[in-house]
Amino acid sequence: MTSSTTAWTVAPEPVDSPDALALWRAYYTEVSDRWYLLHEDRRTDPDELEREIAAGAEGGLTPPDGRLLVARYGGTPAGTAGVRRTADPAVAELTRVFLLPDQRGKGGAALLVAAAEDAARALGASRLVLDTRGDLVEARTLYARLGYEETAPHNDEPYAEHWFAKNLG
Fold first, then answer.
1. Euclidean distance between CA atoms 82 and 107, whole angstroms
2. On the CB side of 64, how many CA atoms lie within 13 Å of its CA?
């Protein structure tokens, strides 16, 4: 293990913990602002941001059907990944993979995804699926590097533009 990975810990956490809520806010703010800046040359309206954060906080990531994982770097909250069951008991969905900008490039994303894969197996899944947007190039690169293959759409989410899957053998 390299010195950059020894500082990382990843553990399940309630979606309503203060750290999880702060990371959800950071995640949603970043992905929403990126979309609006790309498509409408503006940041997210603050009122819309608050409504969407409140509406999506749980995200299906509570036991027994889901898990939210929080990564910490040197003990400080740094990122999240979520896993939730789908209608097919053999398939789980990976969502909300996020690292704070100042924590990127330190090996945490791969550790988060590996922990999410373990959580999916614990939920009984043998396959993990995910979707992402076209502008989230870093995410698509990460998933491909970690063995996820681009697939046909598995959902009709309004912002999904790329779909990936990985068998969890």
1. 18
2. 2
CB contact at 8 A, 133 and 35: yes
Break the chain into its structural domains and give their ranges: 3-167
Q: What is the chain's pLDDT, residue by residue, as a tens digit (169 residues)?
A: 444 556 999 999 999 999 999 999 898 888 888 888 878 898 888 888 888 777 776 788 999 999 999 999 999 999 999 999 999 999 999 999 999 999 999 999 999 999 999 999 999 999 999 999 888 889 999 999 999 999 999 998 888 899 999 999 8
Residue where the block lists tokens 């100042």: 102
Cβ–Cβ < 8 Å for 86, 49: no
* Phi, psi (rounded to 5 degrees) for 38: -70, -40
CATH 2.40.50.140 fits 3-167, yes or no: no
